Amino acid sequence: SAPNYFVTSLAVADCLVGLVVMPFSAAYEVANHAWFFGIDWCDAWRSLDVLASTASILNLCVISLDHYMAITDPFSYPARMTGRRAAALITAVWVCSGAISFPAIAWWRAVRPEHVPPYKCPFTENLSYLVFSSTISFYLPLFVMVFTYYRIYRAAVVQTRSLKLGTKQVLMASGELELTLRIHRGGQPSKALNSKNFSLSRKLAKFAKEKKAAKTLGIVMGVFIVCWLPFFIVNPLSVVLPQQELFSAVVCWLGWLNSGMNPVIYACWSRDFRRAFVRILCVCCPRRMRRKYQPALRSKPSQFLGNTAVMLAHSSVGYSSVGRHQHQPQHQLYRI
């Protein structure tokens, strides 16, 4: 599904940070800012740092947009967010990240001093580039994420209030509310369940699942702001203020820490990704570990929804030219 594609792209970016960027940075810090890997690898390392960090942030932005669409317009979401569109968004994320990183390094190689101090790995301090890259890599995605999560939170508040009244309201992307009357009835539901009603029940179940995913997104966004905001405040200011190497290193590592926190958050808060991690673990572990985790793999993800039978009465309300109220109920029975 599209959300899994986006999280996979995020995982690739975070793995690049953890496997390529952070180890060489650790060696650089331990050696008291002495670079022993050559000037060419210095440029490549700087490029990969900007590429992976920007891709990680932009992937978080795309994930927030995906959840926003799924929450605010759940019925048309499957048709709108197809696999092809998800692939196009992921491609745009990586192309944009590459456009910020690699051309900048090529330009830096052309304008930097010919005689670089030995065992140093300098990077551009051009204020225009730092402001531009910070805006594209952080501030614009931050604005999008705050906006989408606010709309998701607003939709969740509407859902909570409507459930107390015995109704279900879906806040659509257009800002309109779609009202659904929920009536709980005892006994067994009717067996006259057509495919259309079953499809509707699956969409509503997916909507509930997306609400839980939105909570995960909120935690991810909070950690993202705490980790990256100090760096993108200090980064442009480092050109005009005296550099504090220790402080700069701390805020830089704090930003990279975000890439290590993302998998932990998704593993702790998302049941689907926990199951995926367990399957990977079982492949790499002995049979004893497989027997230990096998019950978790057999359980159904939808068990938390229960087997509650509900009657939905979708009401379409219209007005004639003289202001007469018209009410046309359409009853649909389904099981979730």
From TrEMBL:
GO molecular-function term, one example from the UniProt record: adrenergic receptor activity
How does the protein's chain sit in the membrane according to the entry? Multi-pass membrane protein
Q: Name one GO cellular component term.
A: plasma membrane
Please name the InterPro entries in this protein's record.
Answer: ADR_fam (IPR002233), GPCR_Rhodpsn (IPR000276), GPCR_Rhodpsn_7TM (IPR017452)
Q: Where in the cell is it found?
A: Cell membrane
> Which UniProt keywords are listed?
Cell membrane, G-protein coupled receptor, Membrane, Receptor, Transducer, Transmembrane, Transmembrane helix
Which SUPFAM superfamilies is this protein grouped with? Family A G protein-coupled receptor-like (SSF81321)
Task: Indicate what this protein is called per its UniProt record.
Answer: Dopamine receptor 2
